[in-house]
Specification:
By secondary structure, the protein is α+β, with helices and mostly antiparallel strands. The chain is built from eight helices and seven strands.
């Protein structure tokens, strides 16, 4: 009987050690995951800096600071302010559709403008959530990278200036052309036409957009 118990004892200890080891792994994984979540949602993540070193974020996760920037995170109506600030109501053009969205990584507002010749220009304003701003800064968010190569299938690009702002003009393999501007809070403004022959219309709209007001609202 004693011999039988002695044979079973090592097996029981081994089983206990295996359970203990697996438990420690599970706890460690949960702690790491929680730790990452805490870092992303920490106040430090909501205080970012632009190239000049000035603070570019003073809002919390729930946007309770009542700033203009904070207002876009409350609901899709708040996100809709992005195109309002940009001033998309332009003489000679009508808005044929509009859409605002609050996604996990960003807020965006999109409108399609059409002129009397039925040339349509798509305008998108997109800003990363504060907790994703560092990823946007280092270009690791597909939701932002889709507006630029290599996700954008560009066959030609050119740096230009409009209203004193740097922009990149892209021509894609499918025949589309677009303009990409960088704005405050690591946001972007993208204009797009389905046919590059209509790029002149896109450029004309870009010259009338109120980038100054958009940037002022994003930093206040």
């Amino acid at each position: 009987m004693n011999t039988h118990r002695a044979a079973l004892f090592p097996s029981s200890v081994s089983t206990l050690l295996v359970y203990l080891f697996l438990s420690l792994i599970f706890i460690a994984r949960e702690s790491c995951a929680q730790g990452l979540s805490d870092v992303l949602d920490s106040p430090a993540m909501y205080k970012l800096y632009d190239n000049s070193g000035r603070s570019t974020a003073n809002t919390n996760k729930n946007a309770e600071d009542h700033s203009n920037f904070g207002s876009i995170w409350r609901d899709h109506k708040g996100a809709n302010a992005l195109t309002t600030w940009l001033g998309v109501h332009i003489y000679g053009f009508k808005i044929v559709s509009s859409l605002a969205r609050l996604a996990t990584e960003y807020a965006s507002a999109e409108v399609i403008l059409s002129n009397n010749d039925r040339v349509r220009v798509n305008i998108t304003v997109q800003v990363p959530r504060p907790s994703y701003a560092i990823m946007a800064q280092y270009k690791t968010l597909e939701s932002f990278n889709r507006f630029r190569p290599p996700l954008l299938d560009s066959i030609a690009e050119q740096s230009i200036q409009i209203q004193g702002l740097d922009a990149t003009y892209y021509r894609t393999r499918s025949g589309e052309c677009s303009l990409l501007f960088n704005v405050e809070r690591l946001g972007i403004v993208n204009l797009r036409v389905e046919k590059c022959i209509n790029s002149r219309v896109m450029m004309d709209i870009a010259k009338h957009l109120n980038f100054e007001r958009l940037n002022q609202k994003l930093t206040s």
